[in-house]
Amino acid sequence: MFFLLSKIFEFVLLPLTWIIVLLGVGLYKNANGRRMILAAFLMLLFFTNPYFINVALHSWEVQGRKVSSIDLPYDVVIVLGGSMRYYNGELNRPVYSSSVDRMLQAITLYKQHKVKKILLSGGSGRVLFPDERESAILAGILDDAGIPRSDIILENNSRNTWQNAVESAKLLKSGTYGNRFLLLTSAFHMRRSLACFSKAGLKCDPWSVDQRSGQGTFSPDRIILPEAAAMGLWDILFHEWFGVIFYKIAGYN
Description:
By secondary structure, the chain is α/β, with parallel strands linked by helices. Helix content is 49%, strand content 15%. Helix 6 (134-144) links the parallel strand 4 and strand 5.
């Protein structure tokens, strides 16, 4: 139930949803219609501005580290789900998401002998396809990349970040796979992830990837001109902020 409610609230609270609502009500109402349409226009200008979202994201994301900073190999790197959009049955292969960097960086760490084993944590994060378990599918990709099955650990029951932490802890807290763990997920997702794993009693060092912000130079035209991609980045950031709030209410962090 919590999984379904979180998906509903996420949709209701997104900036684009409110812009559409304001435009719709503004067109319907005669008295305050212009004010609502103006408010929607100003919101649209703000949330499509690439400079504002870059500043907000950069302040939220947990910054990454160089691979060379790892001196002693970790026993297990825990890779959180989100690398895959869905599985294409006709082509017999996964369709990757914009967060596929999670998988690519995990493979890099393994190939450079910075981690001994890879734990793929993630079942189905989709409401309509609960049996499409991501980690089980992506294990085959690791196998194709030359990583032995003996070095791949599967956790395919979780459907959200809190369940990632709980189910991963069940596998790792016994000490069977060692006691030095690296938590790998997107930079924007790391704060919530670390809080959940700490609550679940599993100590991990962060390894941020898939960074969406940067310190690039912004020319006047980039500050003024809107970008459609900025709206998508705000959706990601709002998803994380609401996730932290909902998890705090539920006692997950």
